Amino acid sequence: MFDSNENEKRKTPVIGRDLWRRENVVNSAIEAAVNKDLSQCPSYRDSILMIDDPKILGNELLVTSCIANSLNDTFKAEAPLPDIHIPLKSITLTNCQRTKSDFIEKQPFIEDAFKADSFYKTLENSSILKEKLMQLDIFSKIESTTIDYRGKPDEGFHVKYKVQEANRARGKGTLTISSNDNSIAPLASIQLPNIFGRGESASIEYARSSKASNSYSVRFQKPIGVRYQSMLNAGLFRSFQPNCYSSFNQLDHGAFAESTFETHLGVHSLRYDCVWREVKCPSIETPIEIRKQAGHSLKSAISHSLVHDTRDNPVLATHGSLIKFTQEIAGGHFGGDTHHLKGSLELKRNFSLPLDMVLELSTQLISIHALKNVVQITDALFLGGPMTVRGFDQNGIGPLKKEFALGATSSASSGVHVYSPLPFIRRIPGSFADLFRLHLFVNSGTLFDMPKNTEPKELLKVFWRETRASVGAGVLLTLGAVVRIEVNACWPLRKMDGDKFCDRFQYGVGLQFL
Questions:
Q1: I need a surface site. Which of 8, 303, 306, 327 has the fewest CB within 10 A?
Q2: Which of 377, 475, 467 is closest to 419 using CA atoms?
């Protein structure tokens, strides 16, 4: 609590009469400002004495401005504290060897930082600017931040960052698990950041699964325009995708070019893909409907996506919402022998509840329409599994033949989830126990072929007739914003003949869950 008699309680000399006391007030004010903890802030009387002291130094003047602004925002003082208007004059990055100055100067957050007109605003903006600089992914760390004031208000503030640029090459290794065939694939990658000094980067990834298949990709990325989230991506890739639930393997060789940019609606992505696909049927049990589509095909498609994401965590959010809208057109004037239109909509909303609980509502709608012939098995939609409609096997919902999924052209799924911390355990943010949550859910979903020239009423009847539902409870583990592991006990409430559902317990590992 703020106490104007703090000086008398401490029985310390007045600040203008004791240099040691003056330095203590300055240091504690800086610490309070940096930590945003006003309980450490010097008292109101100390602030007034610093202003009245004719021998104040430049740095004390800055701290007084910080104290004045902080106290005005938080407490009702007997009289308004003075506000010292001093502009920010310069921002300097030292220890830069590869980074070009024009790349930093054109960033929009640099212009925003120069709007500061007091020490408090300069301190706040310098902290924000530090985070923005690290988001450029060209610095490994910012070692120190210095705010310099030379005693004359006309000369303003001068902010200096001592930075350490990222290494010219960096590598990492991870382990991936495929949900299609449960294979384990070590993944090695090499990244070359800030190649030419303006945020360009290149990366090479290689993965070899436990079932002797390998995949690789080569990507080049360059910032474009004046927005640091506007990027141009291009690359080549080879990927092997086994689909044991439909008894076919897919081998892709392709190239892509993508541009991402930000507007007030969200982040847009405009992408072109050219993929040579080969489908092989490894078993004589493969249904004839799939076997007829074996062989080579060429997909040439352009797609657009819009993502508006206000969640605080993509893996397990406590608040915020996600809106993702995607459209794709393949074939036609773009070439290739794959012709279709595809659209999808994904919605999520998270609400914070008492006792640190979270309510999540989610839904996803996807539809694909063939422009010529039929939708190929490589583009068909599948549903079911621990990451979509829990309680059913992977791809266990929808048309089946010999227990193999044939896919469909339309799908809809939704979920209601409640997350809660572990009971009887004291929750400490950042602790190991804080990574776990109890999980209650209700899921529903449907997968069907969209009838042609169908009235809306008939479509709703088909939708309702084909809907499956399940409930369950379990435990999940989140590892940062990287991966989520779930172990659930599931009970299907509504299922159709031929559906494949799990035997009570089910686990899933991934990033995106329904």
A1: 8
A2: 475
Q: Angle at which helices 58-74 and 119-135 pack, to 10 degrees? A: 90
| Residue whose token pair is 């489908």 | 279
Alpha helices in 107-195 (DSSP H): 108-113, 119-135
Quote the CA–CA distance of 417 and 192 in Å, as a whole number: 41
**230 near 224, Cβ under 8 Å?**
yes
From 278, 200, 226, select the one nearest 105 (Cα to Cα).
Answer: 226
Instruction: Give residues with Cβ within 8 angstroms of 300, minimum separation 6.
Output: 272, 273, 274, 275, 330, 331, 334, 335, 336, 338
| 245 within 8 A of 405, measured Cβ to Cβ | yes
How many alpha carbons lie under 13 Å from residue 356 in its C-beta half-sphere? 14
Contact present, 63 and 32 (Cβ < 8 Å): no
**Could you count the other beta carbons within 10 Å of the beta carbon of residue 105?**
10
65 membership: H or E segment, kind and range: helix 58-74
From residue 423, alpha-carbon distances to 49, 258, 346, 434, 438 in Å are: 51, 46, 32, 11, 9
Burial 138-176 (b: 16+ CB within 10 A, else e): bbeebeebebbbeeeeeebbbbebebebbeeeeeeeeee
* Structural contact between residues 364 and 383, judged by C-beta atoms closer than 8 angstroms: no
- Look up tokens 């060209």; give the residue: 138
Contact between 305 and 325 (Cβ < 8 Å): yes
Range in 58-62, 97-101, 452-456 the model is least confident about: 58-62
- Please report the pLDDT score of residue 203 as a whole number: 92
